[in-house]
Amino acid sequence: MSATTGKNILIGVTGGIAAYKVVEVASRLKKSGANVRVVMTKNATEFISPKTFREITGNPVAVKMFAEKEHVAHITLADFADLVLIAPATANFLAKAAHGIADDLLSTTILATTAPKIFCPSMNTNMLENPATQENLNILKSRGIKIIDSASGLLACGVTGKGRLPEPVEICKFVENFFAEQNSRQPEKPVEVSAGFGEVLTIEEKLPLAGKKIIVTAGGTMEPIDPVRYICNRSTGKMGFEIAKAAKNHGAEVLLISGNSTQTPPENLHFQKVESAEEMRRAVLAEYEVCDAVIMSAAVSDYRVKNVAAQKIKKSDETLTLELVKNPDILKELGKLKEKQILIGFAAETENLLEYAERKLREKNLDMIVANDVAAEGAGFAVNTNIASFIHRDGKREDLPKMSKSELAEQIVRRLEEKFF
Ligand code: C5P
Fold first, then answer.
1. Ligand 1: which residues within 6 Å by Cβ?
2. Which residues pair with residue 230 across a beta bridge?
């Protein structure tokens, strides 16, 4: 595992020719397990398309301060970041950052975030050596901003000198070292958690969910028709697997119970594969008493076949009628049995989303429901992004922008944490 795994890195790309090199930086950081988001200045988009970064990171790329869909985007981005990396950082950007000028989305976000910052200046040698730029760099350094020194070599302007953006691998190494050092400053003493979910796992004690046992359900249930056929749905399990990973990264002991899914089970958590809703119900109930929270993201089939055929049904008549009976509503049952447990459910709808979600929150006795319109573009099954609203027990609602499922998982787990403390 890399020191950047699970970290939220905000990359700011400003308008220098070296912007193209930052695609590789974003790609490497993403591959190392970081959640990467990119903000570009308008000038940066002259060098490289936001689409390239969007494809690489799996997240929308922000450019405009007042984009219609993003409500106070600079605050959302500022809060997201564990680290802000500016590459390339132009002379103009350095000047603005040094003097607190906030006239576009990136410079405003920089002012709004308390996250640590790493800047990678890149420009023509004379611009870099200009006393104005040097003074600005000194101001930034004196405020604790880390500066990765520019490299020397042939510059885009044809001059040979200092001002090149260091190679992506060097930048990523710097970021990795930064997080490694940060992690080592907060020693995370491994503790063994008591049994309850089966074998004993090693958990990091200092993390916010240390000592908490959390059940996450994922995927679609498979309701048998006969020994070879079943009824299922379009769920891939991605959302639930991301939630399980996020909860584990926050220190929880996680039991992931999954129906049909396309995902690989993450490491260092308890994993149980189930098929039908009834099997999932039994698996959840078996551990419910010892757990502290359940996040039910599984797409549980509402109905099952009444009489499952013992042998493969042969093709005969023109039509075949299957009688379906209602499945148990697992979450509703958990809501009734609830003692200390925090319950989070999902409402995947194609119409009247918020109304249905609020009703489910009440009927199932939940602490929070994640409502998502599965028919919306960029949301729902088999895509990497989701658009959701959180509705809390006290009626508070939060509408989240479109984001990757891993980022949404992170947000869900953070809300869960708030409910514990
Ligand atoms: O009522 P609806 O099926 O839309 O509720 C969705 C929520 O309830 C999800 O969190 C889902 O995992 C859960 N659920 C359940 N048992 C069912 C159906 C849904 O636990 N039979």
1. 277, 296, 298, 300, 302, 327, 329-331, 345-347, 360
2. 224
**Closest C-alpha residue for ligand 1 atom 4:** 347
Nearest to 231 by CA among 275, 296, 278, 279: 275
Using alpha carbons, select from 170, 143, 4 the residue that is nearest to residue 82. Answer: 4
Atom index in ligand 1 nearest the CA of residue 330 equals: 20
Q: CA–CA separation, 418 vs 284, rounded Å? A: 23
Measured over all CA atoms, what is the biggest interatomic distance in the chain, rounded to whole angstroms? 87
Does residue 209 carry a pLDDT above 90?
A: yes
Q: Tell me the Cα Rg of the chain.
A: 25
Q: Which of 22-36, 118-132, 183-197, 224-238 has the lowest mean pLDDT?
A: 183-197
Structure tokens at 406: 């891993």
Confidence of residue 148 (pLDDT cuts 50, 70, 90): very high
Residue 54 has which token pair? 């969007």
pLDDT digits (tens, 9 = 90+) for 216-261: 999 999 999 999 999 999 999 999 999 999 999 999 999 999 999 9
Q: Quick one: pLDDT at residue 205?
A: 55
Spacing, Cα 299 to ligand 1 middle (Å) = 7
pTM over 0.85: no
Report yes or no: 365 and 335 within 8 Å, Cβ to Cβ.
yes
In angstroms, the first-to-last Cα distance of the chain is 29
- Number of helical H runs and strand E runs in the chain: 13, 23
Q: What is the DSSP letter of 220?
A: B
Q: Judge whether 8 and 81 are in contact, CB under 8 Å.
A: yes
Q: Are 281 and 333 in contact (CB under 8 A)?
A: yes
Tell me how far apart the alpha carbons of residues 44 and 232 are, in angstroms, rounded to a whole number: 46
DSSP lists the bridge partners of residue 62 as 39
Amino acid symbol at 244: A
38: tokens are: 């990119």
Residues labelled as active-site residues: 157
Under DSSP, the state recorded for 378 is: T
> Can you tell me the distance from the alpha carbon of 269 to that of 224, in angstroms, rounded to the nearest whole number?
28
